[in-house]
Amino acid sequence: MTHYVDSEVARLGTVLLHRPGPELARLTPRNNDSLLFDAIPWVGRAQEEHDAFAAALRSRGVEVLYLADLLAETLAVPDARAELTEQVLRSRRLGHTLRRRVADHLTYLDPAGLADVLIAGLAHEELRIGGDRPGGLVWTLMDRHDFVIDPLPNLLFTRDSSVWIGDRVGVTSLAMPARRRETTLTDAIYRFHPRFVGTEFVYHPRLEHLEGGDVLLLAPGVLAVGVGERTTPAGAERLARQVFAVGLAHTILVVPIAQERATMHLDTVCTMVDTDAVLMYPNIANELSAYTVIAGADGDDLRVDGPAPFLRAAADAMDLDQLRVIDTGLDPVTAEREQWDDGNNTLALAPRLCVGYERNVETNAQLERAGIEVIAIASSELGSGRGGPRCMSCPLVREKGGVPDPA
What we know:
Layout: E1 12-17, H1 22-25, H2 43-59, E2 63-66, H3 67-74, H4 78-89, H5 96-107, H6 111-120, E3 122-123, H7 136-141, E4 147-149, E5 162-165, E6 168-171, H8 182-192, E7 200-203, E8 215-219, E9 222-227, H9 233-245, E10 251-256, E11 270-274, E12 277-280, H10 282-285, E13 289-295, E14 302-309, H11 310-317, E15 324-327, H12 332-340, E16 347-350, E17 353-357, H13 361-369, E18 373-377, E19 394-398
Parallel strand pairs: 1-2, 6-7, 9-10, 12-15, 17-18
Antiparallel strand pairs: 1-19, 3-4, 5-6, 8-9, 10-13, 11-12, 13-14, 16-17
């Protein structure tokens, strides 16, 4: 199977999603902040909304893969099972006795059951303890609702843990402690699952912090990388070196963004909806700057120019006279509200065809007036983790070249 992505807007062929499940039911008022959710979602409704999202993609000919299914199939490979189990048991907070009990518990699970635990976590009260097999001091001092293995509710946002650039995958380095174990699962899928045999990597979790929501493939050979709350300048530099070394890009635009929850990734303020058009948060559209990075003459040092206005730098790198800009909302207040509700975070299925949240009425109207068809999906519960259709999807296959019109 050939996986290839060199554009944000070329016709989408295959996408990786994660249907929300029991991990969302782990969220409580006591832990939702540390697990990076702004509210406690109604799980059943979130699943209905996500199913409608997946159905909308399939209705446009997109192949939908589910991360949990791929993980269960990966865990049928003995080396993958051993590696992922060992990574969980390596946690220093378990202690010797509890570590042995957790190992015993995981041993009896089939691949699907183990996948469920690795995603949804394992609570103190769920661990098999009793008789002549005590849990030890650590288990005794834990609250009955504490987690022996933490859940991964943010796995919903598959965009962040991996990004395809050309025919290679970058498994990213997530900045927030609550999310770092996500990449161990994604990394194992790409290395052990039969579908991805022979996949080459362009980034690894052990490298500097870099998240997929900060990486935009503006055009073949041109990437924009946001640096802010999640992706560091060191991560952007490392990605530039990696992609230049294997010829996956000729220009990287490094874009500083505010280190705030509302602008955690570049794709919270800017996404592409056509080969020459971006949807942008107007409050920062004219303030956003970019540093243009190209490979140095000796093949090692990078040449950095700028800063320059982002829109100008992007158009130049993409060999366009200018980029068309579609604003989020119609006025400053609406724009701020709809940016917070992921109005900027659209997923392009083809040029001038995208998926957006239905709640962002003014933004969707702006897109339609600009000739962009919007497939509007419900988001009353999906939006509680601060992520839109782009955040919830990792494209694995897009039509090469990035320019044909939708049929």
